[in-house]
Amino acid sequence: QVQLVESGGGLVQAGGSLRLSCIASGRTSSIYRMGWFRQAPGKEREFVTSITWSLGSTSYADSVKGRFTISRDSAKNTVYLQMSPLKPEDTAAYYCYLRTRTGAEFWGQGTQVTVSS
Fold first, then answer.
1. Residue 73, CA atoms < 13 Å, CB-side half-sphere
2. pLDDT in tens, 9-62
3. How would DSSP label each residue in 10-66?
4. Residues 6 or more apart from 62 whose CB is under 8 A from it?
5. How confident is the model over 79-89, as pLDDT tens digits?
6. Cβ-contact 71, 51 below 8 angstroms
7. Among 20, 78, 80, 91, which is most buried by a count of CB atoms within 10 Å?
8. Cα-to-chain-centroid distance, residue 96
9. What is each CA distance from 54 to 41, 58, 60, in whole angstroms?
10. Within a 10 A sphere around the Cβ of 102, how many other Cβ atoms?
């Protein structure tokens, strides 16, 4: 079993920055990929970015390319999401997820990001 705890959300003005963190605990030896999804009110959850644990290969949604950066600290079992510049349309609950080498998936409880115009 794996537990994920996100932090770093908040309220920021358009053009500002935030850094989200997600710490994994439990059976972290089997991590294959970690990343972030987000869900705005009335919308479906959408992919934001991901990173493979061994090689650090990254993938981004077109809507955040060039603005968001995902990184990991393997020693701390932590993944980060640096977001800048933020836009009002980035307002959403951001969820950390983890996929193991056997295909199991785990989700965090979510952290709210609100960008004012």
1. 9
2. 999 999 999 999 999 999 888 899 999 999 999 999 999 999 999 999 999 999
3. EEEETT--EEEEEEEEESGGGEEEEEEEEE-TTS--EEEEEEETTT--EEE-TTTTT
4. none
5. 999 999 999 99
6. yes
7. 20
8. 5
9. 34, 11, 18
10. 7
